[in-house]
Amino acid sequence: MKLKHSIAATIFIPLSATAAPKNIIYMIGDGMGPAYTTAYRYYLDDPKTKVVDPTVFDALLKGMAHTYPDDDTVVTDSAAGATALATGTKSYNGAIAVDSHKKPLTTMLELAKAHGKTTALVATSQINHATPASFAAHNESRRNYDEIANDYIDNKINGKLAVDLLLGGGTRYFIREDRNLVTEFKSAGYQYIQEFEKLDSLNGLPAIGLFADIAFPYAIDSNSERLGKMTEKSLKLLDKQNENGFFVMIEGSQIDWCGHSNDIACAMHEMVDFANAIKVAKQYVDANPDTLLVITADHSTGGLTLGANGEYKWLADKVKQVHASTDTITKALVSAKDLSTSWSNFVDFPLSEEQINTLESAKKSSEQALNKAIKRILNDTTYSGWTTSGHTAVDVQIFAHGNGANEFIGSHNNTAIADKLIHFITQ
Ligand SMILES: [Zn+2]
Questions:
Q1: What is the architecture of the domain spanning 306-385?
Q2: Which CATH architecture has domain 23-303+389-426?
Q3: Residue 204 CB neighbour total at 10 angstroms
Q4: pLDDT of 223 above 90
Q5: Residue 256 C-alpha to ligand 1 middle, in angstroms?
Q6: Residue 245 and residue 234: Cα distance in Å, rounded?
Q7: Is the sign of the CA dihedral 117, 120, 121, 124 positive or negative?
Q8: Catalytic residue among 6, 78, 125, 325
Q9: What mean pLDDT is predicted for residues 53-65?
Q10: What is the pTM of this model?
Q11: What pairs with residue 149 in β-bridges?
């Protein structure tokens, strides 16, 4: 979708009289409601010490955000959530930086580019997935993946491509039969890499790295150091590129996906990856005080609760004993001759006789039934509760650090986060 740029139409928001930060690092934990950061604290804690140690999230907490969309529901999806967080305007579920009338909304990344900053998007999902898309594309539907990818080339700001650095997945949407966007990026002067192991070979901007056909595999099934590494690399590339500074949006994309799957161990591994990325960003801010780091979520996913089934327990040590996603365990168990042996390849606590029988009969019924039965065992054993396979409307946290961080103290609408950042970007 083509965008008419009306950059002058920025709303004035009175802020305290500090000079605007030069660099902005905006991190979004997709689906990361408050229960996730709490779970992460217990998950990380050393049970041998008496006190539960605070985490990087506790160190940076500033306020809360309301996530409702401009729709007939108070429960947002990631597209409407990201549109609010990127543009300061609420829209309907599914909207990619367009308003309720499907008219394009100027995003903070576009404004950053127009104001001479270097811009970047980093995600562990496909880079044209709802959250990153809402910063640099405009579409009436998040499902139009090809059109969204096209926007990364077609949507020009003062004649230039809007995003100087893209790191994530999604090769299949960029290299297609009808159009090869990677070739187009290369002709526009972008370095291109497709192997995550070669991340360090990127030595300048502009650049695009597409490391998966669609998304990265779950952290629990691969490694928990993908977002941290991409964050480190992107900050190295963005650092001192440009006297006007930079804007980067970094998404912990798959916290949400583990939440949809009601898979607690999967979610904790994604939290570890996201938290590592935050630590890298925080270090950057500490070394470069003219930088603002803001971290939030678009919504919470799954209705996660720590404690379930009437018991006063949540067993982080049991969560730590699970070493694969329920999807991976299901696939292995479907073809396994001996369920308990296959189970023990992924989970340190053994199955009871009764649990083996339950899994055997679920397996006879369908793969889906088996998947459900596995989740039941893992959630019951760890006392993890879930209310839905979708999203919920609870407020999410805002974390901030660096120049301007105190602007985020208190209870805010999610659009106010964008308004404040846009004010800093356009000052
Ligand atoms: Zn979701």
A1: Orthogonal Bundle (1.10)
A2: 3-Layer(aba) Sandwich (3.40)
A3: 11
A4: no
A5: 5
A6: 13
A7: negative
A8: 78
A9: 98
A10: 0.95
A11: none
- Quick one: DSSP state of residue 218? P
- Sign, CA dihedral 131-135-140-144, equals negative
Distance 47 CA to ligand 1 centre (A): 32
CA of 133 to the centre of ligand 1 (A): 14
Residues 6 or more apart whose Cβ sits within 8 Å of residue 324: 220, 221, 265, 332, 346, 347
> Which of the 8 DSSP states describes residue 100?
T
Say whether pLDDT at 61 is over 80.
Answer: yes
| Cα of 72 from ligand 1 centre, angstroms | 18
- CA 303 to centroid of ligand 1, rounded, Å: 12
The answer, yes or no, to whether residue 209 has pLDDT greater than 50, is yes
Whether 63 shows a pLDDT value over 60: the answer reads yes
Burial class of residue 332 (count of CB atoms within 10 Å of its CB; 0-12, 13-18, 19+): middle
Identify the pLDDT of residue 15.
52
Q: Which of 214, 295, 213, 195 is nearest to 257 (CA)?
A: 214
CA–centroid distance, 415 to ligand 1, in Å, is 19
Q: How far apart are CA 131 and CA 189, in angstroms?
A: 25
Mean pLDDT is lowest, of 47-56, 276-285, 316-325, 365-374, for 47-56
Distance 1 CA to ligand 1 centre (A): 24
User: Above pLDDT 70, what percent of the chain?
Assistant: 96
How many C-beta atoms lie closer than 10 Å to residue 132's C-beta? 32
Question: pLDDT at position 224, please?
Answer: 79
Domain boundaries of the chain, sorted by first residue: 23-303+389-426, 306-385
Three-class HEC string of 333-365: HHCCCCHHHHHHCCECCCCCHHHHHHHHHHHHH
Is the pLDDT at 207 greater than 60, yes or no? yes
Say how far residue 195 (Cα) sits from the centre of its chain.
Answer: 21
Which residues, by Cβ under 5 Å, contact ligand 1, an ion? 256
Among 79, 225, 196, which residue's Cα sits nearest to residue 138? Answer: 79
Q: In the predicted model, what is the mean pLDDT of residues 96-124?
A: 98
Residue 211 to residue 195: CA distance in whole angstroms: 6
Determine the distance separating the centroid of ligand 1 and the alpha carbon of 302, expressed in angstroms: 9
**Residue 78 designated active-site:** yes
Query: Could you read off the pLDDT of 226-242 as tens digits, one per residue?
Result: 999 999 999 999 998 89
State whether the Cα torsion 41-46-52-56 is positive or negative: negative
Residue 18 is predicted with a pLDDT of 62
